[in-house]
Amino acid sequence: MPAGRGRLCTMSGNPSVSLSVMADHVDRYQQEVGDFVPGFQLTEHDDVAGALVEAERALRGAARLLRRAAKLAASAH
After folding, report:
1. Which of 12, 22, 35, 54 has its CA 20 to 30 A from that of 29?
2. Does pLDDT of 11 surpass 70?
3. Where are the domains of the chain?
4. C-alpha triplet 30, 64, 56: angle, nearest 5°
5. In angstroms, rounded to a whole number, what is the distance separating the alpha carbons of residues 72 and 22?
């Protein structure tokens, strides 16, 4: 196992709580990435704006999957 893995789980003692916290962090990153999009659209940097929209979508999916994992972990714990 790579260094640092499992650290959050052992800190809270409850994997579902740790996963929920991670999902919240990913939500914040998604918002931050999304905040950059209009600025690049206005400067006609469609390539950058497109990459940011794709990253924002991926982060939204990651947050959703983390919440799903948290829910499943809570029922298994």
Report:
1. 12
2. no
3. 15-76
4. 25
5. 15
